[in-house]
Structures are given as structure tokens and as C-alpha cells.
Model the fold of this input.
Amino acid sequence: MHPHVKKLLALQQVDQEVTSLTKDIDSLPVEEAKRRRKLDELDRVATEARNKFLKSELDARALEKAIRGSDDEIKRLNDRLNLVRNNAEYQATLFQIESVRKDRDSMQEECLRLLDVVETQRTEAAATQATADEDRKVLAAFLEEAEKLRSSRAGAIAEVRNRRKALTDGIPDDLLREYDGLYKTRDQLGVCAVENGYCQGCYNKITVNDTARLLGHSSVVKCGSCQRILYMQK
Ligand SMILES: [Zn+2]
Done:
């Protein structure tokens, strides 16, 4: 085997170790962002439900106040009935009382309807808040687990990365860059074997010329189909 290819093969074994140690950890930020987006949406829904409930409650309180105002007005008008001096004024006051009472009754009706709505909205607000709070707990537990996983792996990852650094010694920079690119784009297999004349990365046949070069061990040979760096399997 060409000495550079031999080194790359050892490097690839370490890279595969790094990949298996970091694969699930690398997916954590995406998962965290996804969960945060979901919680943000639940919070938004809960806030909206709460604001709706608070507004209805305020409207109901305002109506109750207006009703009490009408009651006072009716009382004041009734008192006046005792003081009027002629029939025309008496009739006018009666008419006024009737008008205020009519308004008061329709406000009362509206207020009762609104109080029903308030109750429904209060339940809805509490339910959406509970859902968001539950999700917040789930997210906190996930973050805690993620942190545990990260810290338990940190030592092993650092150890493998150190080993990797030592293995790159003596590999030309451009070959190393090429290998790194292949490792990423070719399913963590930048260097692969040739068996019975076939590349084990893409299963295409290797040319007679490339086979001869591989047997010569003096040049770095790449697969004509997948560009992976090749070595002869004994
Ligand atoms: Zn190939």
C-alpha cells in the first residue's frame, strides 16, 4: 500500500470513531431549536387565550358598572317622581325611567352572555397555559439530558481528536484536504478497498491500468467513478 494511503486509512478509522461519538450530539442543536420553536408557539397560543379572557372579563366588569349606573339613575328618577308638580312632568319622568330600564335590561342580557364567554375563555386559557408549562418541563428535561450526554462524551471525543492530530503527520496537505472532502461527501468512506477488481465504495470495476498502479504502490490511485482513494485488499 502507498504510505500516504496507509496513513489515510488509519486516519479514517479514527474519523469513524469521532463520527460515531459525535453523531447524536451533533443532532442536538437542531432538535433543541425544533423543540424551542414548538414551545414558543404554545406560549404564543397561551398568551393569546389569556389576553382574550382578560379582555372579555374587563368588558363584563364595564357592563356591570354601567348596569349599576343605570340602577342608580332609575332610583334617582323614582325619587324625582315624588317631587314633580304636574302630570306632564310626571309622565315625562315615567317615560325616562322606562327608557333607562330598557337599556339596563339589554345590558344585563349582554353581561350574562359575556360572563358565560368569560368562563369558557378562562378554562381555555388555563388549559393552553398548562400545555405550554408541561412542554417547558419536557424541554428542560431534554436540555439536561443533552448536557449530560455532552459532558459524558467530552473526554472520549477529546482523546480521539488528539489521536487524529498525530495521524495527519506526513500526509501532504492537498491529499488530506481531498480525503476530508471525500469522507464528508462519500458516507464516511474516503479511502476504500478494491476487491476482485471492484471498488468497494461504489462497486464499479477498476481499470487494468489502475490495478497495475495499485500493485505498484508508488502512486495514490483514485476510483474513476466515485473518486475515492483506493487500496488493494489482500
Ligand atoms: Zn468507486
